[in-house]
Amino acid sequence: MHLSPRPLAAAGAVIALLGSGTAAAAAGAPATGHTSTSTAATVTRPADVVRAHAQITRAGQMTTYPLINGPAGITAGPDGALWFTNDGYNNAGGIGSIGRIDPATGVVTDYTGPFMNGLQMITAGPDGALWFTNDGSFSTANAIGRITTSGQITLYTGSGINGPFGITAGPDGALWFANTAGHSVGRITTSGQVTLYTDPSINSVTGITQGPDGALWFTNTGTFPSVGRITTTGQVTSYSGADIGNPFGITAGPDGALWYTSQSGLSVSRITTGGQVTSYTDPSIYDPEGIAAGSDGALWFTNYPVDSIGRITTSGQVTSYKHHGIDYPWWITAGPDGALWFINQNNDTIGRITTSGAVTIYTSSGIQTVAKLAAVPNPSTAGQPVTFTARISPSDGGGTVSFSAGGTTITGCSSRPLRLVRGSIYRATCRTSSLAAGKHTIVATYSGDASYSGSSAKLVQTVNRA
Predict the structure, then answer these.
(1) DSSP code string of 117-185
(2) Rg of the chain over CA atoms, in angstroms?
(3) Which residue of 14, 52, 151, 186 pairs with 159 in a disulfide if CB–CB is 3.0 to 4.6 A?
(4) What gap in Å lies between CA 285 and CA 109, rounded to an integer?
(5) What is the pTM of this model?
(6) pLDDT digits (tens, 9 = 90+) for 241-292
């Protein structure tokens, strides 16, 4: 279920927590959480291999329309845009789609087609296209999908593809994916040749990424949690132990190690290519999910149920960013603009956070705005002039604000223009002396414009008898 969007603040608030949970004195100051280091138990052996050629289903050029609805995975595309999946869980029949958002304008384009449902993760492929997983939650279409930057969609089905989730480009020019329900790691060439690797240590595979050692690294969650490594020839190594926790998202770090989120361990962990595990805990880390390397040399991750974005340095310094627009963040990726981009599952938005913590939220109709309304004086006396001031942020000054009382537009207060206050904050005013004695619900409604979504705010104006 998706809740209504929360009102937005103008910028990301920074919460830096010390290991003891005491708030740091300086806003934005990093803190070091609890650290534990151990060497994971290791099992290495060749995987069993199944090879086949997938069936192909093609869809033509898709009609575009603005939509962010049940976003799941997100990645940077080869065209300088962000590409994301809409899983389809909100829609009748579970119809999902692939979305593209232009980081310069916030304009969203959506592509959909037959059997597009249960969409999960997405990654840039070696062929200049985007590749995604289609887990078949609403049909038999368990598939690996490919979409060109012009919207041509190809779905590869069959060949043992079963409930795929994570996907990444491999060092061998193929795509590698977590075949979650099939308890295997899959490889698909850009022409659709599928190879599945199974092993007793491969169970509920979720995240997968290319490692710095030329192998693929993946997470096994659930009953037998572990971090796995598979070479491009199918040699599997499994790392397990108390510090592994319940791993989920995984990414290559800037320090030559792999970093992953641990849901049950409430931690972010680092594993070297030799299997040494270091786990970092902090009061601000709670049910972390997605993780990505940032342009600042740190790791960025999502704290799903507590509505925050976390940052951890390679030495374990943790900073947490809170913002009213962050609402059940799930997956995260580094953008082409040096910022981190993430999906909000609860309010159906795409978020952007700079490495300094400034947050922008994108909706289907543009960048999300917040309206705030004030009245002077309040209470007032019948016949006394009252000035209502609506503040809109962020904005570029486009659009207008209309003021109403009890559902009826106040005379002279329709489509009032915006005036710059400072930065990206604008205001519009309404002055009236027409309100009768009593209590009035005043609503200021911002129309939005081509780049910014509409918003509204309300208050109760008390008018006393003269």
Answers:
(1) BSEEEEEE-TTSSEEEEEE-TTSS-EEEEEE-TT--EEEEE-TT--SEEEEEE-TTSSEEEEETTTTEE
(2) 25
(3) 52
(4) 33
(5) 0.80
(6) 877 888 999 999 999 999 999 987 789 999 999 999 999 999 999 999 999 9
